[in-house]
Amino acid sequence: MSNSMADLRRKISTADDLQSVVRTMKAMAASSVEQYERSVLALHDYYQVIELGLSACFQKGVVDEATSPLRAGLVASSTTKPKGISAIVFGSDQGLVGQFNDVITDFAVEKLSDVASELKVWAVGERVHGRLADSGLPLQGLFPVPNSVKGIASLVGLIQIESISNQLEDESTSVFVFHNRPQTGSLYKPVSQRLLPLDWQWKQLLTDLRWPTHSRAEILGDDLVTLQSLIHEYLFITLYRSCAESLASENASRLVAMQRADKNIDELLETLHTRSHRQRQGSIDEELFDVVSGFDALSS
């Protein structure tokens, strides 16, 4: 009996320690989700400003189809089928995120499985890198996942240098970004976006944007320099927003996983305490029966 009680006490102590760790991780995930969600909201507004700036340049006629793509701020023509495709897949470095990495891996594999062109894949996060390797996709590199909003800019710079710089002036290569995006009413959903080439179809979509006010913006300084700056900022902010959305989704998934684990530990502790109380009560009953039996024996 004593060994069984000791075993129950040990299990209860272990469950209490584990629940303390889970609740700490849950609090950290909740804090991280908040900062990344604020970042995503701010980026949405800034992204719209960049698009409006590009729209103003295109509506003014800074670039026309007779202009060389390289001189026009990297606006390339995509009249031919791309010879190569590069993909950047955002995942996580750490575990305890539920199906987060599996969802984005399955989505990327499905989208890239029928690609006839030369394919190169870069992974952001060790966990998703392993899953992509298991799927058979040709991996070219691995980037670490930033642990704060401040670290996103450094990661975007690394991605631009290693995986985009060679394709930036090459019209025969397309670059796609895959990541999980937070959703209202659910955790997240996998999405993809073509980052390059910046072709005439992309230009036309921005040209057709409606200006939000009656007074249109004017371009100050050199038109082509302004356009080039806006295009570089567009590429940067697109990658930045993809990373921020992926991090927000990752921490939301981790928060849900920790909430589920906390609930399971509560149920386990309730079961262990019930067993402990029954065990203790049984021990007390046995001792009382021994006392009564001894008293009866002495009385007779």
Q: How does this structure look, described?
A:
- This protein has 300 residues and is an alpha/beta fold.
- It has two domains: 2-26 and 258-294, Helix Hairpins (Orthogonal Bundle), CATH 1.10.287.80; 31-255, ATP synthase, F1 complex, gamma subunit (Pyruvate Kinase, Chain: A, domain 1), CATH 3.40.1380.10.
- Helix content is 60%, strand content 14%.
- The protein contains six helices and five strands; from the N terminus they run H-E-H-E-H-E-H-E-E-H-H.
- It has helices at residues 2-60, 100-112, 126-135, 152-164, 200-207, 223-299, and strands spanning 84-90, 118-124, 139-143, 173-183, 186-196.
- Strands 3-2-1-4-5 form a five-stranded mixed sheet, sandwiched between helices.
- Strand 2 (118-124), helix 3 and strand 3 form a beta-alpha-beta unit.
- The protein is elongated and about 115 Å long.
